[in-house]
Amino acid sequence: MTAGLPPAVLAGYLAAIVLLMLTPGPDMMFVLANAARYGARAGAVAALGVAAGEAVHVAAVVAGLATVVAASPVLFTAIRWAGAAYLVVLGVRALRDAGRPNASADRADGRAGRAFLRGLLTNLLNPKMILFSVAFLPQFVRPGEGPVAAQLVLLGALFVAVQLTVDLALGLGAGRIAGRWGDSRWTRRVDRVCAVAFVALGIRLAAG
């Protein structure tokens, strides 16, 4: 056994998070938007930013901070509204840029550099990730089979690894397609779809 967790529990956990990671959400749409607009490098950097944000959520769960945030209506609502506003802003910017030609190489490099921070914020400002981390990870902990903190760290590390693998594959794949097709209608359509998705997700998040 690893960190006190039976192989059957780990197998069930991995199957669950793989299915979850394949479900579209703000993080996936952000990675896709960056890759389609600025290339594979920007998509990969965005994926790293998202993974870093999830690592912070996992650390908060281990430290007990996530439970405090989830139990505070005022703090949780503030994060929810900040996350909703941020998604809407991302959507409006993506919609504004959808009709423009792709950026030059220098500008694209700059966008790639900022993609990490934006990916980090996209994940951190999603209050549903806080609730998810608090509610989901402990379900697979077996207190009688080892230190709880060690089990949470292992579960969190596996979650981040799977998320990073899926998002990297998406970012690199979409970026290569966008680079091959250049300023095609496909790229502009992806921009618009991501823009609408960001705004819709922001509105949905604000509505609770």
UniProtKB/TrEMBL annotation:
Keywords: Cell membrane, Membrane, Transmembrane, Transmembrane helix. InterPro entries: LeuE-type (IPR001123). It is found in: Cell membrane. The chain crosses the membrane at residues 12-33, 45-72, 78-95, 115-136, 148-170. One of its GO terms (cellular component) is plasma membrane. GO terms for molecular function: amino acid transmembrane transporter activity. Pfam families: LysE (PF01810). It comes from the Bacteria. It is a multi-pass membrane protein. This is Threonine/homoserine/homoserine lactone efflux protein.
